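Holo prediction. Input below; ligand is zinc ion.
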Amino acid sequence: MNMLAIETSCDETSASFVSDGTKVKSVVISSQIKIHAKYFGVVPELASRAHIENINPVIAETLAKAGLSFGDFSKKIDAIAVTVGPGLAGALLVGVIAAKTMASIYHKPLIPVNHLEGHLYSSFIENKSIRPPFLSVLISGGHTELVLVGDFGKYKILGATRDDAAGEAFDKAAKMLGLEYPGGPIIDKRAEFGNPDAIRFTRPYVKGTWDFSFSGVKTALLNYLKINPVKNERNLNDICASFRQVVAETLCYKSFEAVKKFNLKQIALGGGVSANSLIRKMFVREGRKNTVKIFMPSLLYCTDNAAMIGCAAYLKQKECGLNYTSLQLSPTPSLLLENWH
Ligand code: KG4
Ligand code: ZN
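Structure of the complex:
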């Protein structure tokens, strides 16, 4: 099954041509980081405008990279998949309108995809051996969730952040440190040259639940910086390493407690923060120790991209035989992760 997938939930305009859910023939991601960097976060109105400008060129480039043109649509594309939520209302609307328009013109089925399901199944693109049950560790700029995936489309959210998402914590910490947006990759890079034991921030384990809370570590960093302003590059790298260490340890500790408790043998990471080099290493190391298989997307598929949307849509269709018409769907900014029927 050949699918054209579209993703516009936040600040990346992306399209992908995916065969049978995992054969990615082409993927194009147009990032808006430069537009939002000076505001240290995504400005919804600017994001919508940039999506409007980018969406047609991104789709055209995706088709071209797969050796296709709009003229091949009827013969070569079987369905269109699109992110319908959660995300920014105006941003989602641009992708949904583009998808609906093509579905109407070319009479193709349209498959709505939850953005979180995209991240949740992103490991499936490059790993043929993964199948439920597994623990999904969803860590992005807007979400931090531990999800027990009992079967395709059968989700139980074990815990979530009570305040900042992991990516948001990295981004806010970077701003305090005078670093650029998005802070996650910058802190990650600097941390490689720093000492993770330089500052001992308290681990925010939120005992007795599977929830997370990262706002306390952020405040701890703020208080630390008030008394100990950044001295030099080396000191800055130490702070980055210490901050990254506490976020990584917290995520890893809770995830492995959950797999033990629910007797799971697989963990799949997903979302922008799963690009973090320490988090990746730590999960692999703990996985070996505990005989838990760790799956993670390559860096290209960690942050927002349309290939993961095509993958999730294919699984949804294959495992549950879901069919839609183009008129049945609209963007849902606060869409929850729901079980498939
Ligand atoms: O999944 P994503 O592209 O967008 C959302 O759905 O939110 O994730 C973006 C987030 C940002 O907060 C960014 O700082 C973080 O992922 N991120 C990282 C790394 N690369 C991206 N955080 C930590 N380490 C990284 N290497
Ligand atoms: Zn995302």
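Residues 2-120+301-320 form a domain with the Nucleotidyltransferase; domain 5 fold (CATH 3.30.420.40). That is the main takeaway for now.
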